[in-house]
Amino acid sequence: MENNTQNLNQILIGKSENLEEASILLNMANRHGLISGATGSGKTVTLQVLAESFARCGVNVFAADVKGDLAGVSQKGVMNPKIESRVESLKLEDYQNEGSNVIFWDIFGKQGHPLRITVTDIGANLLSRILGLSDTQEQVLELIFLIAKDKNLPLIDLKDLKALFDLVLEDLDNIKVKYGYIATQSLGVIQRKVVNFNEQGADDFIGEPSFKINDLFQKSKDGKGYINILDSRILMNDKRLYSSFLLWLLSKLFEELDEVGDMEKPKLVFFFDEAHLLFKDASATLLEKIEKVVRLIRSKGVGVYFVTQNPKDVPDTVLSQLGNRVQHVLRAYTPDEQKALKSAAKSYRSELSVDEVQNLISSLAVGEALVSTLDKKGVPQIAKKVTVVPPRSLMGAITDEQRKDILKTSPFNGIYDEKIDNESAFEILQKQYKEASDNDSKNEKENDKFPSKGTKKDVEFKEIKDKKISSKTTSTKYTKTERMILSSLRSFLRTIGKEAIKILLGSFSKKGRR
Fold first, then answer.
1. Short-list 11, 3, 19, CA closest to 48
2. pLDDT at residue 449, as a whole number
3. Among 40, 265, 327, 339, whose CB has the most other CB atoms within 10 angstroms?
4. Which of residues 186, 204, 222 is at a domain's end?
5. Are 15 and 90 within 8 A, CB to CB?
6. 206, 207, 164: which is closest to 187 by C-alpha?
7. What is the pLDDT of residue 461?
8. Does one domain contain both 257 and 108?
9. Rounded to whole angstroms, how far apart are CA atoms 109 and 231?
């Protein structure tokens, strides 16, 4: 049988016992995919095989390295008896060890090029998720972003956001009139969480120069794609930040890339490892956004492949859009796990019964998988049990020296290293406060020239006012004696009036009795 390890129209995943191939057609690779299986079942190796294969075919790749072992894709693999046995049993005649072109990124700038983003790039919704805000607090944060936009105050880093908080608190009454009620208690909670976020190292990756999406589309001189690896070992300490950051990157691709329709091969394949973190505690609004991005981003030439333990980790609305699937072993010891296993078995097109597919999935050995991919018409093929081909690159971590060498020869060496502090909301507001302070000082100097009466303008205004008051009151001035006489006269007239009324009323009542 013809070997497809070098076929540039498809990606070989593995072969069955009778050497029947299971491959992803490149023109169907943007229909997304799923790699699932229990811990230690071989998901990372499968991810590595797919990543290096896509890059070899000229497709760029983005993947997060959550354990540090995916970095080995940058180095030439080493043959050992286990790999030799698999190569021979699968009849991989042209198999050879080789590394791939890799660019390392790290939002903290420690194990890769710094990958920075601005506060505006993150947006109010994702920042709310990162900070763990309530719905009410998220609405307040959205108002802060709106105020910044209306006042042309760029939000670049966290000190810009803090400056906006101060502005709102100082001008709260006017802001409430224009934007509605802002709960100061919620504002205080957000401020504290932003401070904590900053103390956790957020200031390292929020700022400029900000990451450019086009940087993910580098090509080597021989036409091969680059594998962009985001070192996520530190990032995974905050799982909410990890998932939110990858979602931001995916959304940014969706927003900035042009529509290209169906292509012979994708422009980029995006691997979302630990995908269950993306959907955990996600709001209905966020789930709707994820579903929309996954549904429409394929027309931008991007394929998204979720990597997780169980297919059930992915909502059905998203799972239904994942056409290429690799299922490693699932263990089912508890009722919930058995239910999840049955659900996974039902999702595959198979000639076997659901119970038989369940037994098959639960009995897969490490390195084996149940694979279903799309045919040339986009229809899911019958699922096959296969042995996954071994990667050509090194399986495992690399040394610090190897990483440094790759960073030195990277096309982005020196471009993102130094953080830049451009003028933004903080600097603009500082200027405005300084101008206001200078004006106050100027007014104080004017007051010094007229210590008893104020500034020259104040004196002129007072003189005009005094004249008006004088003109109104000169014609009605009375002496003290005159005022006493007038007061007595008014009192006398009031008494006479009351007596007259009594006499009249009494007269009417007598007539009535008669």
1. 11
2. 62
3. 327
4. 204
5. yes
6. 164
7. 47
8. yes
9. 9
Closest Cα to residue 201, out of 243, 241, 155? 241
Mean pLDDT of the chain: 87
Residue 68: which residues within 8 A CB-CB, separation 6 or more? Answer: 231, 233, 397
pLDDT in tens, 407-447: 999 999 999 999 999 999 999 999 998 888 878 777 776 66
- The answer to whether the CB of 41 falls within 8 A of the CB of 366 is yes
Identify the residue whose tokens are 């007061």.
487
DSSP β-bridge partners for residue 303: 269
Residue pair 78/260 in contact (Cβ under 8 Å)? The answer is no
Distance CA 32, CA 46 (A): 15
The rounded distance, in Å, linking the Cα atoms of 423 and 149 is 15
Assigned token pair, 368? 């084996």
Same domain? For 402 and 501 the reply is no
Dihedral pair phi/psi, residue 385, rounded to 5°: -85, 120
Q: Quick check: helix, strand or coil at residue 428?
A: helix
335 and 223 assigned to the same domain: yes
CB < 8 Å & 24+ apart, contacts of 175-178: 175/147
Q: What radius of gyration, in Å, describes the C-alpha atoms of the chain?
A: 37
Give the span between the Cα atoms of 268 and 270, in whole angstroms: 6
DSSP type of residue 393: B
The secondary structure element, H or E, covering residue 302 is strand 302-308
Task: Say if 442 falls within a structural domain.
Answer: no
By CB neighbour count within 10 A (0-12 exposed, 13-18 middle, 19+ buried), where does 336 fall? exposed
Residue 396 has what pLDDT? 94
Q: How far apart are the first and last CA of the chain?
A: 137
Of 204, 231, 250, the domain-final residue: 204
pLDDT tens for each residue of 356-411: 999 999 999 999 999 999 999 999 999 999 999 999 999 999 999 999 999 999 99
Tokens 């071989």 correspond to 42
Residues 301 and 399 in one domain: yes
Judge whether 169 lies within some domain: yes
423 assigned to some structural domain = no
The whole domain housing 167 covers: 119-204
Establish if 81 belongs to a structural domain. yes
Q: Please write the tens of the pLDDT for every residue from 469-479.
A: 444 444 444 55
Do 338 and 371 share a domain, yes or no? Answer: yes
60-65 and 33-36 strand pairing: unpaired
Q: How many domains does the chain have?
A: 3
The rounded distance, in Å, linking the Cα atoms of 467 and 373 is 94
Residues 219 and 341 in one domain: yes
CATH number at residue 72: 3.40.50.300
Task: Establish how many alpha carbons lie within 13 A of residue 175's alpha carbon, considering only the half-sphere containing its beta carbon.
Answer: 21
Shared domain for 161 and 294, answered yes or no, is no
Do β-strands 102-106 and 227-231 pair in parallel, antiparallel, or remain unpaired? parallel
